[in-house]
Design brief:
The structure holds two protein chains of two kinds. Helices cover about 25% and strands about 30% of the residues of chain A. Chain A is globular, with a radius of gyration of 14 Å. Chain A is α+β, with helices and mostly antiparallel strands. Chain B is elongated and about 85 Å long. Chain B is built from 29 helices and ten strands. In chain B, the strands form two sheets. Chain B has a seven-stranded mixed beta sheet with strand order 2-3-4-1-5-6-8, sandwiched between helices. Classes of the chains: A alpha+beta, B alpha/beta. Chains A and B meet through helix 1, strand 5 and helix 2 of A and helix 3, helix 10, helix 11, helix 16 and strand 10 of B.
C-alpha cells in the first residue's frame, strides 16, 4: 500500500517510494513554465533535496516513532538517526507499507 | 623560513562534536566573527604544534554541500576556492552512514582530507565496533578515532594531519562511483567541462549539474551555455530512466555508496536495555509529560535568572553609583561633569547592570540546553504553536530568548534556514515583551492598576504577535518552510565549550549594544543640559496628550525608553517627582502608556542588532512600523477605555 508518511501508526515502518516534491507542481527537470511557477518549483524541490540529504531517499526504510501532540511534527527514525519532520512535508513523503 | 604556516578546516554534520574539537585545538586563541557579507558565523583559531603554526577554521555544521542553506554555500565555497591545506572531516561514530554521505561529497570536491571518527566511546556503548584500518583502505585517506570531550586521539589526529600536509604519507582518495547511467553522463560532462576554465574540479561540477545545482549552473552558464543545455538533456534522460527527479537519483546512489562503506567498516550489536538518554528523550517529548517538563524548565530558568539578576544588578548598581562623588570631585558638577557622568557613565552603568547579571546567565543556560540536546526537543514540541504565527518550531528558541532581551533574540534568528524565515522571526521577536518591558508592565499597571490588567496586557501582546506574525507571513514573498531537524542523542554538555560560547556571545552583545547605549544616553543628556526638554514636550503633545490622552511629560519618558525600555518608568518617576503613579495618572492613562511602551519601538540595542543582521532598510522599516502601530493601538485603547 502506498500511503503518505503521516498516515502511519506510531511504531509502524514503510519503504519510501517517492519524495518528489516537484512532481505535484506539474513538471520535472527541464519543464519551465511561468517565472513564478519556476521559482515555486525550485523552492519546493529544495526541500525534497534536504530530505534526501538527511537520508530520506526512495527505497529507504523509515519508521514513525511518534507524532508531537496537537498534530505536531513527526518523529521518525531513518538510517539510525532521529529526525523531526513538519506534518505538511511528511504528508508528501509516500511510503509502501505492508499491512 | 623557520616556522611553517598551514590552514586546516573542520567540516562535518551538526552535533558531531566539531566545536569541541575546535576548542580542544585552539583553546583561547580563537576569533569568532561572520563570513564576509553573510550572517553565518565564522570561527577561527590558531594553534602551535611541533614548530608549525596552524590556522583552524571551524566550518558550520551541515549535512550536504548543496545550496540548501547559506551555511552549505559558505562551506563549499571556502573549500573549493580558498583551498585549505587540509580538511578534517569530523564524523559521528554512531551515525556512520549519514556522515559518510557528507564525506563522499568532500571526496568529490577533491580536497586533501583526513577523517576523525568522533565520539567512539558513545558508539561503543551503543554496540558499534568500527574497523579503522578497513575504513582507511576503503576511503583512501587517513582515519583517526577520537573522543573530543576527553581529548583522546586529538594529538594523533594532529600528527597525522601534519604528515598528510607535508606529504609524508601516501594517500589515494576514493573516487565515489555512481551507477552506469549516471557515470556515463558524468564522464561526458567532464570532457566538456575540462575544456573551460572553472574554479571547481570538473567531476564535481559535472555531478552538481546533474543535481540541478543553481549556483554551479550559473557559473557554468557564464563560460558555456551549451554545457548547461547538455546537462539539462541528461537530467531529462535520467528522469525517464529512474522515475525520480535527478537530484533525488544522485543522492540515492550516493547514499548507496555510503551505506556499503558503513556496512563494511562497522559491526552493530544492539544493546538490550534502552539507555538513560533514550528514556530521557521519550519523557521529554512525551505527548502528556513533554509540555509540563518544558514549562517547568523554562520557568525555573527565568525565575533563577531574574532572582540572580535582580540581586547582582542592584549590587553592581550601588557599587558603580558609589563612584559618583569621586567623579564629581574631579570634573566638578558643572556642565562637563554632568555630561560625562549623566551621559557617558550612566550609559555604561546601565549597560553593565543589564549585561552581566541577566544576559550572562541567560546565555550560559541557553548553551547548556543547546549542547545537551534539549532545545531541539523544545522545538519539536512547539512546532505546531509556532506555525500559528507563520513560523516553525525552531523559531521558538529566539522567541524564548527575547523574553529576556530582544538583542539575543534577534541574533538568535540565525538558526532559521532561509532569509525569509530569519526576517519573519526577527519581526516577531521585536514584539515579544523583554525583561525591561515586563518591568514596566508589572511596575506600572501591575502595581497601580491591578495584576489582572497586567495579565490582560500580556495576553493582548500575545494576540498582537499572532496576528501580526500571521499577516507578515502572508505578506512576505517566498515559500514557507517547514521543520526538518535532527534530534541528536542527549549528552552531557562540554563545560568549557559552553563557557566559551557564552563568553563570545556576551562579547558580541557588549561590542554591539554598549556604544549605542552610551551614545544615546549622551545625546539625551545633551538635550537635557541644553534645556531642550520643554520644547520637545510641546512638539510631542499633540500625540501624547491629544491622541493618547496622556500627561505631556510622558513624551520625554518614551524618548528615554528608546535607550532601555525600563528607563521610561524611571524617567516617569523623576519627572513626576514621585513613584506613586496612582496619584498622578489615571488607571486608563497607565494602561495606555504601558501599551505604547510595550510595542512602540525596539530599543536602540535591538535596532542595532536588526541593522547588523538585516541591514538599515529592513531595520528602519520594522522600527517605523512599530512606532506607528503602537501609537495607533494606544489611541484606540484610550478611546475604548474611556467610553
Amino acid at each position: 500500500m502506498n500511503l503518505p508518511l503521516t498516515s502511519l501508526r506510531n511504531g509502524e515502518s514503510g519503504v519510501i517510494t517517492s519524495t518528489d516534491f516537484s512532481s505535484e507542481h506539474g513538471g520535472m527537470c527541464g519543464h519551465r513554465g511561468r517565472r513564478g511557477h519556476w521559482r515555486k518549483r525550485f523552492r519546493v524541490a529544495r526541500f525534497g533535496k534536504r530530505l534526501c540529504d538527511l537520508g530520506l531517499t526512495p527505497g529507504t526504510k523509515v519508521t514513525v516513532v511518534k507524532s508531537a501532540p496537537f498534530n505536531g511534527p513527526l518523529e521518525v527514525s531513518v538510517r539510525g538517526s532521529r529526525l523531526a519532520i513538519g506534518r505538511g512535508m511528511a504528508s508528501r513523503i509516500l511510503v509502501d507499507v505492508e499491512r | 623560513m623557520s616556522e611553517k604556516h598551514f590552514r586546516i578546516a573542520l567540516a562535518g554534520n551538526a552535533n558531531v562534536g566539531k566545536s569541541v574539537i575546535f576548542n580542544q585545538l585552539t583553546g583561547l586563541h580563537q576569533h569568532i566573527g561572520n563570513w564576509p557579507g553573510k550572517t553565518v558565523e565564522k570561527a577561527e583559531g590558531t594553534l602551535h604544534f611541533k614548530g608549525y603554526t596552524v590556522d583552524i577554521i571551524d566550518l558550520p555544521g551541515i549535512y550536504s554541500l548543496s545550496t540548501f542553506s547559506i551555511e552549505e554555500v559558505v562551506s563549499r565555497d571556502y573549500i573549493a576556492t580558498e583551498k585549505p591545506d587540509l580538511v578534517i572531516n569530523v564524523v559521528d561514530a554512531s551515525l556512520l552512514e549519514r556522515n559518510m554521505f557528507f564525506t563522499l561529497q568532500l571526496l568529490e570536491l577533491e580536497t586533501p582530507l583526513l577523517i576523525a571518527i568522533n565520539q567512539v566511546d558513545m558508539a561503543k556503548k551503543k554496540g558499534i565496533v568500527i574497523d579503522y584500518e578497513k575504513a582507511e583502505k576503503l576511503l583512501g585517506v587517513p582515519v583517526v578515532p577520537t573522543v573530543a570531550v576527553s581529548g583522546k586521539g586529538i594529538y594523533s589526529m594532529l600528527e597525522t594531519a601534519i604528515e598528510v600536509i607535508e606529504q609524508k604519507r601516501k594517500i589515494s582518495p576514493l573516487k565515489p562511483r555512481y551507477g552506469k547511467e549516471i557515470e556515463e553522463r558524468i564522464e561526458d560532462l567532464v570532457i566538456l567541462l575540462s575544456k573551460v576554465q572553472l574554479r571547481y574540479p570538473a567531476r564535481w561540477a559535472a555531478i552538481k549539474l546533474l543535481e540541478e545545482d543553481r549556483e554551479v549552473e550559473k557559473k557554468v552558464l557564464e563560460v558555456s551555455p551549451e554545457i548547461v543545455a547538455t546537462a539539462e538533456r541528461f537530467r531529462d534522460e535520467l528522469v525517464q530512466l529512474h522515475g525520480h527527479s535527478c537530484p533525488t537519483v544522485v543522492s540515492c546512489e550516493r547514499y548507496q555508496v555510503a551505506n556499503s562503506i558503513s556496512d563494511e567498516i562497522q559491526q552493530i550489536t544492539e544493546p538490550l536495555k534502552a539507555p538513560l538518554r533514550e528514556r530521557l528523550h521519550r519523557v521529554t517529548t512525551h505527548r502528556i509529560f513533554g509540555f509540563p517538563i518544558m514549562l517547568a524548565s523554562v520557568l525555573a530558568v527565568f525565575i533563577g535568572i531574574f532572582s540572580f539578576g535582580d540581586f547582582t544588578s542592584a549590587l553592581l548598581g550601588d557599587l558603580l553609583f558609589g563612584l559618583k562623588p569621586a567623579f564629581d570631585s574631579v570634573l566638578g558638577t558643572g556642565i562637563i561633569g554632568e555630561l560625562v557622568w549623566g551621559g557617558v557613565m550612566e550609559g555604561i552603568i546601565g549597560g553593565i547592570t543589564v549585561a552581566l547579571p541577566y544576559i550572562l546567565p541567560f546565555y550560559f543556560i541557553l548553551y547548556l540546553f543547546e549542547d545537551s540536546g534539549y532545545l531541539s526537543r523544545v522545538a519539536f514540541l512547539m512546532d505546531n504553536i509556532m506555525h500559528k504565527m507563520g513560523l516553525h518550531g525552531k523559531a521558538f528558541i529566539p522567541v524564548m530568548l527575547s523574553l529576556g532581551c530582544n538583542v539575543p533574540g534577534c541574533l538568535g534568528c540565525r538558526i532559521m534556514e532561509t532569509s525569509r524565515e530569519r526576517l519573519l522571526t526577527a519581526f516577531v521577536v521585536t514584539l515579544v515583551p523583554c525583561a525591561a518591558t515586563s518591568v514596566i508592565i508589572l511596575g506600572l499597571v501591575g502595581a497601580h492598576v491591578g495584576i489582572e490588567w497586567a495579565l490582560a496586557l500580556y495576553i493582548i501582546n500575545l494576540a498582537i504577535i499572532f496576528v501580526l506574525g500571521r499577516i507578515a507571513f502572508k505578506a512576505l514573498p517566498g515559500e514557507p518552510t517547514e521543520l526538518i531537524m535532527e534530534m541528536s542523542d542527549y549528552r552531557i554538555p562540554h563545560m568549557s565549550t559552553v563557557a566559551k560560547q557564552t563568553w563570545f556571545r556576551l562579547r558580541e552583545f557588549i561590542v554591539m549594544a554598549f556604544p549605542l547605549i552610551i551614545a544615546g544616553s549622551f545625546v539625551i543628556k545633551l538635550v537635557e543640559v541644553a534645556n531642550l526638554l520643554e520644547p520637545i514636550i510641546d512638539v510631542f503633545s499633540p500625540v501624547t496628550v491629544a491622541w493618547l490622552g496622556l500627561p505631556a511629560v510622558t513624551g520625554i519618558a518614551l524618548i528615554f525608553g528608546v535607550l532601555r525600555k525600563e528607563l521610561t518608568l524611571i524617567m516617569l518617576a523623576t519627572l513626576f517627582g514621585t513613584a506613586n503613579f496612582a496619584q498622578v495618572m489615571t488607571p486608563v492613562q497607565m494602561i495606555v502608556f504601558t501599551l505604547v511602551a510595550m510595542l512602540y519601538i525596539p530599543c536602540v540595542a535591538t535596532i542595532g542588532a536588526l541593522v547588523k543582521e538585516f541591514g538599515w532598510k529592513k531595520a528602519l522599516l520594522i522600527t517605523v512600523f512599530e512606532i506607528v502601530f503602537a501609537l495607533f493601538v494606544g489611541g484606540i485603547a484610550f478611546r475604548l477605555l474611556t467610553i
